[in-house]
Design a protein that fits this description.
Number of strands: 0
Number of helices: 5
Order of helices and strands: HHHHH
Largest sheet: none
Shape: globular
């Protein structure tokens, strides 16, 4: 489910970023700020909900989100719905917008996964590392 949320956010990022001559577009050049903030919010949810499994669930969700947003959605939803053909047609500007968004969103997501775990949920090794970081 988290992967689908990330896929939706990446797809929404494309609508926020792409030029306004496309339907449902905003042409916002700072689209990556919105995406990074929302990825951090998802990272916070994962870290708080599954503290012991946050890295595994976070990585799997990110991979699933990327696959859905950049492979499955363009082929099945756009290709079949708009072009009535099973095709993979991605414009270079879409790849550029994705790259910019991911450069900002992945570090925000990972940093949030790392920092937003309650002290009660940490294992002994993680608690010791957290105490070392907090005291230094």
């Amino acid at each position: 489910m988290v992967g689908l949320v990330l896929a939706f956010l990446l797809h929404a990022d494309w609508h926020i970023a792409r030029p306004t001559h496309h339907r449902w577009s905003l042409g916002f050049s700072f689209h990556w700020l919105i995406t990074a903030t929302l990825f951090a919010a998802v990272g916070w949810f994962v870290a708080r909900r599954w503290p012991a499994e946050r890295w595994r669930i976070g990585a799997q969700s990110l991979l699933l989100g990327l696959v859905f947003a950049q492979i499955l959605e363009p082929i099945f939803l756009e290709g079949l719905y708009y072009h009535h053909a099973l095709e993979y047609r991605i414009e270079p500007e879409r790849w550029r917008a994705l790259g910019i968004a991911l450069v900002a969103a992945i570090p925000a997501y990972a940093l949030t996964l790392w920092l937003c775990v309650s002290a009660d949920a940490l294992s002994g090794d993680e608690r010791a590392l957290s105490a070392t970081v907090d005291s230094g």
